[in-house]
Amino acid sequence: MAALGGGAHRALIDHVVAHYADDERIRAIAVFGSVSAGTWHELSDVDFDIVVGDRAPVEPAGEVSELFGARAVIVITRGDSADVVLDSAEEVSIRWHPLHDTSPNIIATTQVIAGTVSTEELAAAGAANRGVPDEQRLLDELVRDAIGARKAMIRGRRWEAVAAIERMRRSLTALRGRRDGLLLDPGDPAEALAAVLAEVRADFDLGPSRAALLRQTQGA
Questions:
Q1: Average pLDDT of the chain?
Q2: Which of 75, 99, 204, 208 has the smallest C-beta neighbourhood within 10 Å, fewest atoms?
Q3: What is the torsion angle, in degrees rounded to the nearest 10, for the CA atoms of residue 29, residue 111, residue 182 and residue 102?
Q4: pLDDT band (50, 70, 90) for residue 219
């Protein structure tokens, strides 16, 4: 099991676990993302996945208020989840959901840290919700963005290139069903582009037409 971040991360994790310790709605508290995977930076946010009973009432804004009070300066809610910026500038994301509604996109790095549901059970629930990605469409989008990134670099529009490369990463995540572990430098979009393309080529067959387009525009 990977270490759960640095001291500040662990303090947030301990706080959330203690807050829900006697809450009968809660079946499990899990952490996922870089803090769970061991690829964290001291500035990394903490991603929580909280499993509740099937009919347990959850209102994200109210949950955040009870968890953090005045420390929560910015709270952005989306149905069953919340993104929070604390007064310390630390960031937290939390989703509350029944077990059967577990996202497949978190299971590669999820660690259950409290509750009666195991990490294996949570992962199995998420895997059951994984659909079959539209591989051809995603590869088309990925190659299109690779070409766009290269054109943006040639034109001196580095931030447009960075944005295109980030879209490529999202396509790669959708194809794999998990995040990549790349540490990309936005100050060097050419190297970042090459790194993402290397990941794609390692796992997927681009086909002759897409490969020819990339050779034409990327010099690869």
A1: 93
A2: 208
A3: -60
A4: low
* Top-level class of domain 7-128: alpha beta
Phi-psi category of residue 79: left, alpha or beta, with phi > 0 → left and psi -120 to 50 → alpha: left
Question: What per-residue confidence (pLDDT) applies to 1?
Answer: 46
Q: What are the start and end residues of each CATH 3.30.460.10 domain in the chain?
A: 7-128
Kindly report whether the global pTM for this prediction surpasses the value 0.90: no
The length of the chain, given as a count of residues: 220
Half-sphere exposure of 216 (CA within 13 A, CB side): 10
Q: How confident is the model at residue 220 (pLDDT cuts 50, 70, 90)?
A: very low
Please give, one letter per residue, the 3-state secondary structure of the chain: CCCCCCHHHHHHHHHHHHHCCCCCCEEEEEEECHHHHCCCCCCCCEEEEEEECCCCCCCHHHHHHHHHHHHEEEEEEECCEEEEEECCCCEEEEEEEEHHHCCHHHCCCCEEEEECCCHHHHHHHHHHCCCCCCHHHHHHHHHHHHHHHHHHHHCCCHHHHHHHHHHHHHHHHHHHCCCCCCCCCCCCHHHHHHHHHHHHHHHCCCHHHHHHHHHHHHCC
